[in-house]
Amino acid sequence: MEFCFDCVNETILNVIVLSSHDERNAEAKFICKGEYLKTITNYPEARNQQYSVEFHVFFELKEGLIYRITNYFNENDWLAQLAA
Where does 1-84 have alpha helices with state H? Predict the structure, then answer.
């Protein structure tokens, strides 16, 4: 993750968190607004491009602790915004 912090500057907005009644699963949905500052290998050249991408993060919980995290976002949309 630290590598990413050198390449982008991001702000998380509009966070929504949901959890299941049995407390074994949770989801966070949010908008990630950012600026692409430093080129990442095999990605478009960084030119301080602005982007906004919706994320969904799913959590599996065991004994009240986060056991697994899975995240989804539209990478093609993000790449299109960087290429613009």
Answer: 2-7, 75-83
